[in-house]
Specification:
6 helices; elongated; mainly alpha
């Protein structure tokens, strides 16, 4: 595997891990001094459910780049209108809502595209090396 192929192989994985960690930060909202310790723990775990799902999808993409790439691209693009509208209804700011889209959903679309590109680049290199 040459350097550009290695970079394209690891880049979506690194970005995805960073994006999952970023999304996981929102689970810290679950800690409220008005709640009991057990209520806080349950709320924290519930807030982490999207992160757990994204981790499972990352494992799938790690082994099956094309399938994972399509899933991440669909998630990133498909959830963007919903996240935008939810945030726009809360803050009535187009620029702030777009910023949230670029911080939360678009990284997963980029990860998906990178997984797909990595799949085809590695497939092309393996067919070239067989010839």
């Amino acid at each position: 595997m040459n350097k550009s192929t290695k970079t394209l192989y690891y880049l979506p994985r690194i970005i995805c891990i960073a994006a999952i960690l970023f999304v996981s930060l929102f689970a810290l909202d679950a800690f409220d001094p008005k709640l009991t310790l057990w209520q806080q723990i349950v709320a924290f775990i519930m807030h982490l459910i999207p992160s757990f799902i994204l981790i499972i999808l990352l494992f799938i993409a790690w082994k099956r780049e094309l399938i994972g790439g399509v899933i991440f691209t669909v998630i990133g693009i498909g959830l963007s209108p919903f996240v935008f509208m939810h945030n726009y209804n809360m803050n009535h700011s187009i620029s702030m809502s777009l910023g949230i889209i670029f911080a939360i959903t678009i990284p997963f679309a980029i990860v998906g595209i990178l997984f797909i590109l990595s799949h085809f680049k590695r497939k092309r290199e393996s067919s070239i090396s067989k010839d």
